[in-house]
Design a protein that fits this description.
Elements (H helix, E strand, L loop, with lengths): L1 E7 L9 H20 L7 E7 L7 H10 L6 E6 L7 E7 L2 H11 L9 E3 L8 H5 L4 E6 L4 H4 L12 H20 L7
Parallel strand pairs: 1-2, 1-3, 3-6, 4-5
Antiparallel strand pairs: 4-6
Helix pairs in contact: 1-6
Length: 189
């Protein structure tokens, strides 16, 4: 059984892609690194996917989906960060009401950093096919007030990234992915 965390690596025409979506790739990598460094071994496999081809119609994700859809019942949740890694506020979530209640409970663990909101839907080109077929999905929600200052521009460089905000985003990704991967049962569908 698999808990998938992800971001995509492809930058668009002019910037370096540090925010869109290097930040999502980084926090996904960091989540798994933190779990490993803490010596935690969840009941399910945590899988990191660094998508490519998202800007070209999600072709990397479509290929991955085609290769793995026969095992769709083993995917517990698919998580994608693709809207920057600014100050986080919570998760967008797509899934059943019972699964949403579980995710809301998990998010209470993040009250010390004031990141507890669960929004109505998850977004993400790379996880869309999975969610369409009933796999619960989550996307990071953060402060988008500066996102379009840099999105697909020459300004999308590492200088956009705030290490403290990225650490908060990585904390959200780490807690949510680990707790779901270590639950007794998969999220209800």
């Amino acid at each position: 059984q698999i808990v998938l965390v992800s971001g995509h690596l492809d930058s668009w025409d002019v910037g370096q892609g540090a925010m869109d979506d290097g930040g999502g790739a980084f926090i996904s990598w960091e989540a798994l690194s933190l779990i490993k460094d803490l010596g935690l071994r969840p009941k399910r496999t945590l899988r990191l996917v660094l998508w490519t081809g998202e800007e070209q119609g999600g072709i990397g994700a479509k290929q991955y989906y085609q290769l793995h859809k026969e095992n769709i019942s083993n995917f517990d949740i698919v998580m994608e960060s693709d809207e920057g890694t600014f100050k986080p506020s919570g998760l967008g979530f797509t899934g059943t009401a019972k699964a949403r209640d579980i995710v809301k409970e998990i998010m209470t663990l993040l009250q010390p950093i004031n990141v507890t909101d669960v929004y109505d839907t998850a977004d993400g080109t790379d996880i869309r096919d999975w969610m369409r077929d009933g796999v619960p999905g989550a996307s990071l929600r953060d402060d988008l007030s500066k996102y379009f200052w840099f999105h697909h521009s020459h300004g999308d460089t590492m200088t956009v990234q705030d290490p403290n905000q990225m650490n908060l985003c990585a904390a959200v990704w780490t807690v949510v992915s680990y707790v779901i991967a270590d639950m007794e049962e998969m999220l209800p569908r």
